[in-house]
Write a structure and sequence with these properties.
- GO terms for molecular function: 3 iron, 4 sulfur cluster binding; 4 iron, 4 sulfur cluster binding; electron transfer activity; ferredoxin hydrogenase activity; metal ion binding.
- With 326 residues, the chain is of the alpha/beta class.
- It is built from nine helices and eleven strands.
- Helix 1 crosses helix 6.
């Protein structure tokens, strides 16, 4: 039986759509064919517009067309004054269409950090009154409320990220389209555990520097950990970015850029390129599962036992010292 997918966008930059189009294992067309799925409409990919789009939506709401999966990208915009008129779509506020469509969808999927948690648009001062589908930042509720369940009995399925990796999107949708995803497969933020069960740090080639607390003081070097000074959030951000590589070859930390924490509810946070520290010089945000006391104790031991070769340049030139490490 053909499964019908409807993809809508709210307060979105379209980044998750562009990411989805880069899928190659499988590519988008193969993904749809292999899963017997039909894309009813997509704002960037479909030809229909205006009244024809309204007809598609009306057919769904009247039960003439089944809606298996509703995918939403971007924030739900409630402004001004909770009218939603900052985001008009097919003659009505998008939020009004959304409120009705979620009631007839077997599954509701939020693609990207904005749809999941509110992301950048929902950050203060939030002039558009943006929110996520079922979360507003860390607080559960969002637009649909904490108790919302789709026709199949699941809450909103969040595929967070700015953008979400194409493989995260296709892998999750394959599970959804085959009715194999259950509530037990979701973490506390309603993200698939098979994607968001590890931290971004897992698989990072700079991990050995993290283990021995050898920090990098400036950008542009292969050596050193980006966590201690340069803002990397990989040790407390859940994503497989160093396992499922971008373009099948890279990630932020592999090219010397700190993880921005874009899969988490509080994205965006403090300066992306600077680690916020307390008066003692200890990072305010510690790795997941690590207490402040343990961090202080083990940091001193690790740094004292660091092998000498880690303090030297990987590609050493004559007389050169790695003075960019500390």
């Amino acid at each position: 039986m053909t499964k019908n997918i409807l993809w809508l966008q709210g307060g979105a930059c379209g980044g998750n759509t562009l990411s989805f189009l880069n899928a190659d294992q499988p590519d988008v067309l193969t993904f749809l064919e292999d899963n017997n799925a039909k894309l009813l409409w997509h704002p960037s990919l479909s030809l229909e517009s205006g009244e024809k789009v309204r007809e598609i939506l009306t057919s769904i709401l009247r039960g003439r067309v089944r809606l298996d999966v509703l995918i939403f990208e971007g924030t739900v915009i409630l402004g001004p004054n909770n009218t939603g008129r900052f985001n008009m779509f097919a003659g009505r506020p998008m939020k009004d269409w959304l409120r009705e469509l979620v009631q007839v969808a077997d599954y509701v999927v939020a693609v990207g950090d904005c749809a999941s948690f509110g992301g950048v648009p929902a950050s203060d001062p939030n002039p558009t009154q943006s929110t996520g589908l079922q979360f507003h930042k860390k607080e559960k509720g969002g637009f649909l409320g904490s108790g919302f369940k789709s026709v199949k009995g699941l809450p909103v399925i969040n595929i967070s990220g700015c953008p979400a990796h194409p493989s995260w999107i296709t892998t999750t949708l394959i599970q959804v389209l085959s009715d194999r995803l259950t509530s037990e497969d979701l973490d506390e933020y309603q993200r698939p555990k098979f994607i968001y069960s590890t931290t971004t740090q897992f698989g990072c080639p700079r991990n050995i520097y993290f283990s021995y607390k050898i920090g990098l003081k400036e950008f542009g070097h292969q050596e050193g950990c980006l966590y201690f000074n340069l803002g990397c959030k990989g040790s407390y951000t859940r994503s497989p970015c160093n396992l499922i590589l971008w373009n099948n070859q890279s990630s932020k930390t592999r090219v010397g850029t700190p993880c921005f924490g874009c899969t988490e509810f509080d994205f965006p946070t403090f300066n992306f390129f600077m680690t916020e520290k307390n008066r003692s010089g200890i990072p305010k945000r510690l790795p997941l599962g690590v207490s402040r006391g343990s961090y202080t104790t083990f940091s001193a031991v690790a740094r004292a036992t660091a092998p000498n070769y880690l303090l030297k340049p990987l590609n050493k030139k004559k007389g050169e010292e790695a003075d960019w490490l500390e």
